[in-house]
Specification:
Bound molecules: NADP nicotinamide-adenine-dinucleotide phosphate
Shape: globular
Distance between the termini: 31 Å
Strand order of the largest sheet: 1-7-6-5-19
Mean pLDDT: 98
Largest sheet: 5 strands, mixed
Radius of gyration: 23 Å
């Protein structure tokens, strides 16, 4: 079959792909979106596990580009659940008539750049081919899910689910014996939601995480009106903060205030909704080990207060990383779950999992029998989705091989050696309140594509010196942050994936404000960091 031609191919119909499609279509371009799922939504399409919801204030999360959309849509809760977010994204797709440009069930397997005509040739599973001068990757940083590398996984006779591949039909867990592996943000949401329904729940924990209360609640009609009237202020506020959340870092240092003032501030943050306790904390909490120790002690005290059995509480308190040095899960009654008779916590450092058996899980000490096994075992973050596609740039260069060690990008938007490939939320971009980051990058990429079309260029790629300088800047920006010394998906560690045992810097951590400033300067000065032909 001959390839299907368009002006641009976008891989992914999540929040990034949908907005990028909207913007390029407005330039009059023919756009082909290829999406592996059967519908739009990306993260919110795949992650349907019980209790899935985001941790951004709903009214700071949605798209900001359409005033009409902002006024029409009503978020039911301050932190919306996955079904509402998916409903929202479908509403957007329908309102802006996006689906007619999207081919679903189209998992991209290869993307090859042809030097002779400066076109990308893209193939999907099943063999259809597409061709376009521009390739835009909107893959999502957390789309390459990973299963635990535990022997016997295929033997289990009950039902087994990874949280990122949760069935579309509800899973009946009433009265069932359920085992869950993992205690990250996903597991915490799942555990606190299913614990009340299951017959018995066994949680297999390798590393406990610090978690703080979400304090979610319904949005009242008065609040709804207030939110709709203040979108300009809300988005302006998000633009001022380094993570694009509404929470601003407190300028004081924890070590400079009295113990009473510190404690009172932390009590206040602990009682407030959202990420304030993480990204709105004292300025030194995520950079100074002594300040971080104090914050960790405060959080440990909270866990001890909430979990009745002191031995279980101790197991739930992280010992190998400080508060906030991994992405903070927000919870709603998570710790209290361990006060229930039908929930048991197994520390697999004390009694390691030896294998998965047809009946359940065998640890060094016990045989567990389960009807359902849940793998909340996370993702090969940021670069994983790129590795799962065979991407070849100029001269047949393999992206996977080029990025061994560290990704080489300029602004996280283009990779060295991969002409005409633009990445939305690729490695080395600022991240936080994701849709805010996405809109800015999509707008920037759209301006750059417009520049390319106006000047009738056929090919663009970043200059090697600009890539090297950006790489150095990215490393420098992370130097003082404690999280860079801790293993997590954010530092590129995934013990289930070969080669993912060395920490890498995968984001830009100099803050969204600085990222925006630098990206804007590049555009204003005429994109001199790129080679144009
Ligand atoms: P994660 O944070 O990487 O957690 C994976 C968990 O599985 C960890 O507890 C990990 O233990 C454990 N694990 C992995 N392999 C294992 C093995 N072989 N044996 C035993 N345990 C194993 O993944 P996640 O919870 O899916 O969250 C990923 C990210 O998604 C979050 O950080 C967040 O950015 C995003 N997320 C957001 C929301 C939200 O907005 N509310 C909700 C969920 C997720 P170790 O720590 O020891 O490796």
């Amino acid at each position: 079959m001959p390839p299907i031609d368009s002006d641009a191919i976008i891989i992914g119909a999540g929040i990034s792909g949908m907005y990028q499609l909207y913007r390029l279509r407005a330039l009059g371009m023919q756009v082909q979106v290829l999406e592996a799922g059967t519908d739009v939504g990306g993260t919110w399409y795949w992650n349907r596990y019980p209790g899935a919801r985001f941790d951004s204030e709903s009214w700071s999360y949605g798209y900001s580009f359409s005033e009409e959309l902002l006024q029409e849509w009503e978020w039911p809760e301050h932190f919306a659940a996955q079904p509402d977010t998916l409903r929202y994204l479908n509403y957007v797709a329908q309102k802006f008539d996006l689906k007619k440009h999207i081919t679903f069930n189209a998992r991209v397997t290869t993307a090859y750049f042809n030097d002779a005509d400066n076109h990308w040739a893209v193939s999907v599973e099943g063999g259809a081919h597409y061709r376009a001068p521009l390739l835009i990757t909107a893959l999502g940083p957390l789309s390459a899910y990973t299963l635990p590398n535990i022997p016997g996984r295929d033997q289990f006779k009950g039902k087994a689910y990874h949280t990122a591949r949760w069935p579309h039909d509800p899973v009946d867990m009433k009265g069932k014996r359920v085992g869950i592996i993992g205690t990250g943000a996903t597991a915490i949401q799942t555990i606190q939601t299913i614990a009340k329904d299951v017959g018995h729940l066994t949680v297999f924990q390798r590393t406990p995480n610090w978690a703080a209360p979400l304090h979610n609640r319904k949005i009242t009609p008065e609040e709804q009106a207030q939110i709709k009237a203040s979108y300009p202020e809300i988005f302006a506020r998000c633009r001022e903060t380094s993570t694009c959340f509404i929470h601003q870092t407190d300028p004081r240092n924890a070590l400079d205030v009295s113990p009473e003032e510190r404690e009172a501030f932390w009590e206040k943050l602990y009682s407030e909704p959202g990420f304030g306790i993480w990204v709105g904390n004292f300025a030194d909490v995520l950079t100074n080990p002594a300040a971080n120790d104090l914050a960790s002690a405060f959080m440990a005290k909270k866990i001890r207060q909430r979990v009745k059995d002191p031995a279980v509480a101790e197991k739930l308190i992280p010992k190998n990383h400080g508060f906030g040095t991994r992405r903070l899960p927000l919870e709603s009654g998570y710790y209290e779950v361990y006060n229930q008779d039908n929930v048991r916590l197994i520390d697999i450092n004390e009694t390691p999992i030896e294998c998965i058996t047809p009946e359940g899980i065998k640890t060094s000490q016990e045989q567990f029998q389960f009807d359902i096994l849940i793998y909340a075992t996370g993702f090969d973050g940021v670069t994983g989705p790129y590795d799962r596609i065979d991407i070849r740039g100029a001269g047949g260069l393999s992206l996977k091989k080029e990025w061994v060690g560290t990704p080489k990008t300029f602004l996280g938007v283009m990779a060295e050696g991969f002409p005409n490939m633009l990445m939305i939320l690729g490695p080395h971009t600022a991240r936080g309140n994701i849709p805010r980051n996405i809109e800015e990058i999509v707008d920037w990429v759209t301006d750059m594509i417009n520049h390319m079309r106006q000047h009738q260029y056929n090919r663009v790629e970043p200059r090697p010196d600009a890539v090297a300088a950006w790489g150095e800047h990215v490393e420098k920006a992370v130097e003082n942050l404690l999280f860079s010394q801790v293993n997590s998906w954010q530092t590129g560690i995934n013990r289930n994936v070969e080669g993912r045992d060395v920490r890498r810097t995968l984001g830009y951590y100099g803050g969204a404000v600085e990222y925006r400033r630098m990206a804007q300067e590049v555009a204003i000065k005429g994109y001199r960091e790129f080679l144009w032909r």
